[in-house]
């Protein structure tokens, strides 16, 4: 008997301390179940009961878990055996599988204007908070609290989101803007977000009081400056005298670039700033912009600078090449200081070979794009920039996509501005000036202004599928290091003014990010106002044989043989 009792005691001790393993000999917990790779399905099935069956339980222990087939969730008794309290655990809803936040609006929303769902949109960011991809979820319902704006049902009704990732969903807005509206995207009772659209209330001319309510919009402002070609004297063969007038009927229109934009902004009028005009008298100017919505991420706020008394104000002039700060205007966004908008009088940027016998009497102006980079305002050789042209106006950029006065010169790749590239307007058409020869250059400096074509081509059309160059192939292959540096900022053949060079491909790609349309029209609508005499908009880049192409349906970077003639737009080297 004693032996039996002793044995029971030992067994009892084993029961208290043992760990149980299924499909494993070394369990690391009271119970560990290891998957059997031979089984087609592995896992743990909790007892399945419906709500009626669950309620029939007699004194269920606290912590008891079941799978409720009515609620389709695992339930846990968080109460007591006498007073059970069942709660679902780990459902899609209460762990918020999907979270939603407003991002912003795309497009300009003006009072009484009818919205185009292709260009007027609200954007929400939807996040998958789980470790698995969500597929086929319906995010098509956007409720609109407004008078006539609406979002067509069916947009984004089959969305897939990778694990722990976010997507920005755009919803086209239709209807007319009669008043502000609230847009709400809902996934379920736990996941929704709302965003208020403040429309442009058509502020009367000259009235820029802060009458909009804004929506706490924020943005980081980039370089804020504008330069105007205001020459009073020069040493050129053709004297020029250009000035700029600010009046109530002709304000200066400027753009304020920003990044990280989100939300709406109030109308703003700056404090008055004193400026000395061309006569030496002190005059006052101010900057103002209307309320609106910040483009998502990146964009510009259009503003205007006017004279306070409304009378004509002629800006002061400077000498050719001189740059003078004439005004600094304080800028705010939703009452937050953002620096100053700087206004300069500038004598222009002379062409690299101005006044040389190669007829390069061009003067250019700098512009600052939304990326913060400084470019020449037109292609090299544009008629607007030729001093002895009937349309000479260095401040003027292309007026249309086919503005022949903005086309400019056509360069063979990495060739110097030796005259081969020059063009002119003949019989109202953009024409090349140079003669064509088929004798390849013996080095990188042909010392003449003729176009050099490979003899295996007719004009600019190759006869066989191969790369063509304007220089002898053996010389090129033996001097590739020098060839690669010809258009660098200090390169021997760099056609750009001092401190400028053709753009790199990544610099072009950053500009592409700001295009409102990824096509030829978008390239023209950009700050650069790109125009081309060719069927597509083309400009050379710094990397070998690469050009930027903008056609009616797309923009891209592509290779091209070196002998072909393409426009050059210069960027300031940094």
Automatic annotation (TrEMBL):
Which UniProt keywords are present, listed alphabetically?
Answer: Signal
Q: Where does the record locate the signal sequence feature?
A: 1-18
Q: Which InterPro entries match?
A: Ig-like_fold (IPR013783)
Origin superkingdom: Bacteria
**Is the keyword Signal assigned to this protein?**
yes
Return the protein name. Fibrobacter succinogenes major paralogous domain
Which species does the entry assign this protein to? Candidatus Ornithobacterium hominis
């Amino acid at each position: 008997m004693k032996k039996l009792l002793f044995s029971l005691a030992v067994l009892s001790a084993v029961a208290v301390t043992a760990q149980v393993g299924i499909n494993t000999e070394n369990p690391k917990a009271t119970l560990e179940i290891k998957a059997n790779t031979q089984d087609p399905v592995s896992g743990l099935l909790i007892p399945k009961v419906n709500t009626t069956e669950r309620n029939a339980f007699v004194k269920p222990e606290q912590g008891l878990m079941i799978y409720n087939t009515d609620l389709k969730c695992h339930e846990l008794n968080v109460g007591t055996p006498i007073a059970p309290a069942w709660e679902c655990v780990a459902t899609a809803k209460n762990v918020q599988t999907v979270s939603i936040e407003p991002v912003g609006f795309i497009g300009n929303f003006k009072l009484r204007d009818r919205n185009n769902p292709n260009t007027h949109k609200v954007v929400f960011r939807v996040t998958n908070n789980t470790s698995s991809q969500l597929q086929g979820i319906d995010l098509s319902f956007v409720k609109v609290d407004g008078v006539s704006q609406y979002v067509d049902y069916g947009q984004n009704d089959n969305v897939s989101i990778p694990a722990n990732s976010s997507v920005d969903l755009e919803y086209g807005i239709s209807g007319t803007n009669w008043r502000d509206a609230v847009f709400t995207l809902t996934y379920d009772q736990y996941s929704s977000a709302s965003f208020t659209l403040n429309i442009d209330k058509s502020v009367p001319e000259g009235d820029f009081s802060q009458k909009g309510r804004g929506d706490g919009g924020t943005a980081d402002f980039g370089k804020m400056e504008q330069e105007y070609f205001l020459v009073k004297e020069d040493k050129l063969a053709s004297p020029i005298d250009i000035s700029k007038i600010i009046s109530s009927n002709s304000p200066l229109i400027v753009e304020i670039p920003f990044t990280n934009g989100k939300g709406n902004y109030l109308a703003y009028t700056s404090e008055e700033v004193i400026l000395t005009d061309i006569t030496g008298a002190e005059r006052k100017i101010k900057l103002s912009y209307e309320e609106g919505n910040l483009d998502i991420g990146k964009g510009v706020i259009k503003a205007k600078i006017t004279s306070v008394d409304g009378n004509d104000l002629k800006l002061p002039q400077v000498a050719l090449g001189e740059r003078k700060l004439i005004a600094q205007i304080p800028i705010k966004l939703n009452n937050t200081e953002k620096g100053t908008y700087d206004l300069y009088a500038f004598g222009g940027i002379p062409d690299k070979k101005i006044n040389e016998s190669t007829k390069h009497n061009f003067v250019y102006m700098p512009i600052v794009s939304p990326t913060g980079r400084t470019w020449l305002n037109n292609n090299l050789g544009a008629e607007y920039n030729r001093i002895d042209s009937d349309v000479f106006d260095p401040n003027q950029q292309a007026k249309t996509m086919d503005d022949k006065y903005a086309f400019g010169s056509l360069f063979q790749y990495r060739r110097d501005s030796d005259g081969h590239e020059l063009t002119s307007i003949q019989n109202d058409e953009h024409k090349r000036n140079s003669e064509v020869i088929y004798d390849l250059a013996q080095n990188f400096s042909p010392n003449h202004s003729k176009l050099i074509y490979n003899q295996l081509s007719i004009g600019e059309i190759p006869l066989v599928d191969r790369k063509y160059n304007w220089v002898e192939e053996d010389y090129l292959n033996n001097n590739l290091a020098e060839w690669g540096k010809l258009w660098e900022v200090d390169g021997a053949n760099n056609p750009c003014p001092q401190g400028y060079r053709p753009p790199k491909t990544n610099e072009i790609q950053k500009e592409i990010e700001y295009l409102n349309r990824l096509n030829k029209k978008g390239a023209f609508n950009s700050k650069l106002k790109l125009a081309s005499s060719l069927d597509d908009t083309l400009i050379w880049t710094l990397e070998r044989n690469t050009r930027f192409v903008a056609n009616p349906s797309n923009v891209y970077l592509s290779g091209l043989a070196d002998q072909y003639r393409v426009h050059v737009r210069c960027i300031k080297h940094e």
